[in-house]
Each structure stands twice: as structure tokens, then as C-alpha cells.
Amino acid sequence: MPPQTPASISRRRFLTSSAAAALAFPFVSRLGAASANGMLNHASFGASGMAGADLGSITATKLVNLVAVAEIDESKALELRKNFPNTKVYRDWRELLDKEAKNIESVNVSTPDHMHAPIALAAIQLGKHVYGQKPLTQNVWEARQVTLAARKAGIVTQMGIQIHSHTAYRTAVQLIHDQAIGKVKEVHTWSSKKWGDPTPLPTTSDPIPAGFDWNLWLGVAADRPFIGKGYYHPGNWRKRLDFGTGTFGDMGCHIYDPVFKALNLTAPLSLRSEGEQPTATNWGINAVIHYVFPGNELTADKTVKVTWYDGDMRPPGSVLEGLGPDIKLPDQGSIFLGTKGAMLLPHIGMPVLLPKANFMEFAMPKLAQVDHYRQFVEACRGNGKTSAHFDYAGALTETILLGGVATRFPKTTLEWDAAKMTFKNLNEANPFLRRASYRKGWEPKWV
To answer: CB of 283 within 8 A of CB of 276?
Structure first.
């Protein structure tokens, strides 16, 4: 299959038109793009997988008109047309923005991680509201830039951590805020997933599947041969350094979220990895990453420790001592240890206060259901605000992606200066805060 080129737009033309539109009409999406019946005109970057779930949930609100979709796999585009026959389908996301900017108000960015920042930034610069999948970006520096750009543009944003709005997670946050277990001494949080790969990069290459645009899929990443059997596409890109963010970047955005929210955490003071290093091309597995955060009125001390585990790693057995018989940790979740008890929070499940005998008469709060997607849609329509906006989600993403950097320097405590975006004590780690280079012709226009 010959290399594909953008259908009707050069990169230079796209940057020129995008920048001009952003300068002339920074809030163009609010100046009349809405349909006559008040529906929100929307575009999706991606048609299947998480993108399919996102656009399905966004359109399920019955308040959204799906104007256009960008999809690099023809088979997925054909499936989309069955459910959305009137939606325009583009192969190149840049062409979609170039041709449809005046027709849309909002977008969802639901691509592999490495393309989150370039696409979100371009949409933000056109004044479009953005629902961005987790992690917000693939590296720490991009997360900061996208957050700042969204703040400057004054658009509506929401990160795709939909469990953030789930009753279970919101209940857990309220319990900690109400100090149901007293002040928090430490937290342990984990996932059994293994988005890493210790094996070397295969030296063979495979034919590019018909209808699949490998060049557009690569996007900002360096050119390389296609490898089949799912090595990159459709799912195992999460294991690869150039495309994904490993287990922590993927699941940590969900599971760390209620910890971050419940404890009103800010940027960490330091972090230390005790687990496996990445290889030259792939993320490691079985991570153990210790964070130290500034304490506050919700914590027992001036600092609070939060430790992440993934793969086969779990909190030590001592964590459960004194919490009652037959307490088992779920495959994914968190446990908060407080001065008056503990809270076990499965992913996804209601929190359990421990020891159970001490909380037999405790009345759990009753919270109303919240639809994460509808919250975004309504905010775009001027009704209310989002709770996982980029000012929150950007800081969460930065914190989690710092863990990926730490895994490159095992058994080394990294001291973090969030204001300067630098590690104070290990300069060798700082280059890993951002992508070393973007493929020529694909460089995002950071502002």
C-alpha cells in the first residue's frame, strides 16, 4: 500500500489557517455554529474503540449533532456510517478541522495517546470545546501546554475519566472530605493490568493492512516499519514508549483520580520508583512508585505518601492489619489509611469503611447520579460546568506521567519543582518530560 498524503491540506496551510482563525475569532464556536434547533454540532477524532464509546455516549444525550469524524481505518469508517449515515468522514484530522471548523462547536479527541496533544491543541486554537481522552497528553510538558492553551481560550473542557462522575468515586471523595476515617495518613492504589513489554522490538516488518493509513496513524511519531499481529494497532500501542503511557498512564488516570480529588492534592514534592525499567522501546511492568505530596487539613501530617502498584505488585500485607478478617484487595482500586479507620475503594465499586465493625451504624451519603458526558455537553451549551476540566485533569495527568519518568531511574528519589517544570536533583531526568522531537511536518504550534 503506497504512503497516504493528506487529501486537501498541507501542514503549513493548516497551521496558517488555524492560527489565523484562533487570532481573529478565539471563541468562534460560540458565535453561531449551533444548529437551528439548539443541538451542539460536534466532531470526533476516531470512530471505534474508545472513540466509538465516547461519541456514542456524547450523542446518546440527544443534544448533539455528529457533523464529522476523522478515522484512519476504512473498515471502522464503514461501521460508523451504519449508525451515522449523514456524518461526514475524513481520513486526515487536519482536513476535518480545515473544512468543518465553521460547522462545529465541540470535539472529542479519542485517539492513541501520542496524538492527544496535537489534535486537542489545534481544536483549542480554533475555539472548540474539547472532550479529551485520558491521559490528557502523552507527556508532562504537553499536559501543561494544553492546559494553558485551554485556559487562555476560555473553552469548555472535560477529560475522559468518566468514573470521576460515578456515584462510587464521588461518594469516596465526600467520605474523605467529611473525615469519616479521620485524617489520612497514607494511600495505596493499584491496577492489575500490564501495559508493558519486556521483549525486544521485532526486527521484521509486515504489510500495511488495506484501508489502514499507517502514515496518519504515526502522526507526530518518527517513521518506522509497520508490525502486524496487533503490535501497535489496534491496542498494544499502550505498551510502546513512543505511543502510550504504560499501565500507570492508562489506568492511573482513573484510579488515582479519586485519591487526587479526595485529598485535594497538588503537585508532588518527590517520587521514587522501585519497579522495573522500560526497555529501549517499551514500558515496564510491575511498577511500584512512591509519591510524597504536601499535606493539608485532610492529612495527618505535613506530607502524605501515596504509592502506586501495577501488574503483579500490591500493597504489603501490613496495610490490612487490624482492618478485620477476610479483607481482600480487588484487582484494581485504592485503600486510604486514616487516623480513625480505613476506606477501601474498588475500581469501579462503592467504598467500604474498615474495620466494618466500627462503622455498622454509619450512614453513607446518598449522592445523585451524574452523567460525565452530558455534563460536558450541557456545559458547552452554557448550562453548568464540568468537573474534570483541564485545569484539574492537566494537573492530575502531569502527576501520573511523572511516574513514567521515574521508572527510567529506579531507586532514585526525584525532587519535583512544578512551577519550573524540572527535577531539582537529577538533570538527566528532565529530557523525558517531553517528546524529544516531532516528525517533520507534524510539529504542533505551541502558543
So the answer is: no
